[in-house]
Give the backbone structure.
Amino acid sequence: MNGKYCMFMFMLLEEGKRRSEVAEILFSVYQMNVAHLSEYFEFQIKEGKMRNVDPRSAALTLISYFAHIYLLNGILGERFLCDMEAESEGFIDIFANGILIKNEAKLGE
């Protein structure tokens, strides 16, 4: 993401705090993205391709990560993330596979 796009996003967010009509537009776009991604996750759960989690929480987690990372990268530049693609792949791996090692026995047994 280039610095101009990031600055534009900050301007929209700041303007949204001052003007309710801008906030409504931002909210509707955000809600639409969350709803579509939630529906996708719900479908994946029903198909048995994803474990049974709250689809909206999963959508919020995914969207929040990318929004946060892109904004920070736009502000801090390459000092923050050297390789955006590698960072994204790392997050997707953690998101899809978790951080815990899958053991046959439960902890404490």
